[in-house]
Amino acid sequence: MNFHTRKWVKPEDLNPNGTLFGGSLLRWIDEEAAIYAIVQLGNQRVVTKYISEINFVSASRQGDIIELGITATEFGRTSITLTCEVRNKITRKSILTVEKMVFVNLGEDGLPAPHGRTEIKYVKDQFKDAVVE
C-alpha cells in the first residue's frame, strides 16, 4: 500500500475529547479514495457505492501528521474495490482501517458504465510513453 496523502491534525479537526474527529477523517478518506478511483479508471465520474466496517484503531491528536494509504484490491466490470489504512506518519501506528470501499464508474448518462480496467495503473506507467519536448 502506498501512502501519498498527508494531513496535519489542526484544532478545527478535533472533537470535544481533543482527538481527531472521525467525521473529518472519513471525509478525507472518501475524497482520497475517490481521487484514487478517478486516476485508476481514467474517468472523473465515479461515485462511492459502499464502505465496509470502519475500524478506529487508535486516536490521533492535534499536531499529529497522519498519512492515508489506499490501494485497489479488485476491478469489477463497472466498479473498483479499494482498501484503506490511516497511520501516524512519525510512529507508523495505525489509526484507522477500512477493509472495503467500492466506487462505481459512471457514463455521461449518470449510469454505471464499464471501465475496461483490470489491474492497478502506476504513475510511472502512465507517463512512460509521454513525449518530452
From TrEMBL:
Keyword Oxidoreductase listed: no
Any one cellular-component term (Gene Ontology): cytosol
Source species, domain of life: Bacteria
Keywords linked to the UniProt accession: Hydrolase
Record-linked SUPFAM superfamilies: Thioesterase/thiol ester dehydrase-isomerase
GO biological process, one term: fatty acid catabolic process
Stated family: Belongs to the acyl coenzyme A hydrolase family.
Protein name: Acyl-CoA thioesterase
Originating species: Pseudomonas fluorescens
